[in-house]
Amino acid sequence: LKKYSKQAINYILLHELGHKKTNIIIKIICLFGIIPSILFLLALLLTVPIILIWTLFTASFYSTIILLIVYIFWALIGVLVLMPFSWLSEFCAEYYAMKALGVKEILRLESEMQNASKLGKIKRFFHRIFRRVIYPPTSLTIYIFKQWNKKGPAN
Fold first, then answer.
1. Contact present, 11 and 101 (Cβ < 8 Å)
2. The whole model's pTM is what?
């Protein structure tokens, strides 16, 4: 946290407080979506040794490739199942911070924090993928924020 300004730390705390202030309904939705998704991904991870052992002792090269393609396909399906629930939770937290700080300040602080992180090219690449899976695009959050502030969120 030493590399971030006080305003950036305030933004991080507001974001995390936004998670706390999230409605219980969203927590229930996430609970029933995330736990099965995590269990599904764990089951896939546990099958890797089985696939490798089976491949080494009984299968041909082509069946190994097919099994790996199927495994990657199901891993991607697991990520796609998890993504909407994560996006919903992160959107609510980001919305809370945006209400407190405003859109321009959020964009400035995100840029400041990105510049302060000093990630190498490879780490930055994987960090961007991770952010895309876990967080909704900032432009989408801002768009919804502006629409709701015109009319108020639909309840």
1. yes
2. 0.68
81, 37 Cβ separation under 8 angstroms: yes
Q: What is the DSSP letter of 94?
A: H
Angle (nearest 5°) at CA 137 between 38 and 118: 90
User: 135 in helix, strand or coil?
Assistant: coil
Angle at 140 between CA 19 and CA 73, to 5 degrees: 85
Predicted pLDDT at 130: 82
The set of residues, in sequence order, having a beta carbon less than 8 Å from that of 134 and lying 6+ positions away, is: 86, 87, 90
Distance CA(8)–CA(122), nearest Å, equals: 25
Q: Read out DSSP for 76-108?
A: HHHHHHHHHHHHHHHHHHHHHHHHHH-HHHHHH
pLDDT-wise least confident of 78-87, 88-97, 135-144: 78-87
The whole-angstrom separation of Cα 85 and Cα 15 is 17
Report the distance separating Cα 111 and Cα 114, nearest Å. Answer: 5
> Would residue 152 be called left, alpha or beta, if left means φ above 0 and alpha means ψ between -120 and 50 degrees?
left
What distance in Å separates the CA atoms of residue 118 and residue 109, rounded to the nearest whole number?
A: 15
Beta strands per DSSP E along 44-142: none
Determine contact, residues 97/108, Cβ cutoff 8 Å.
Answer: no
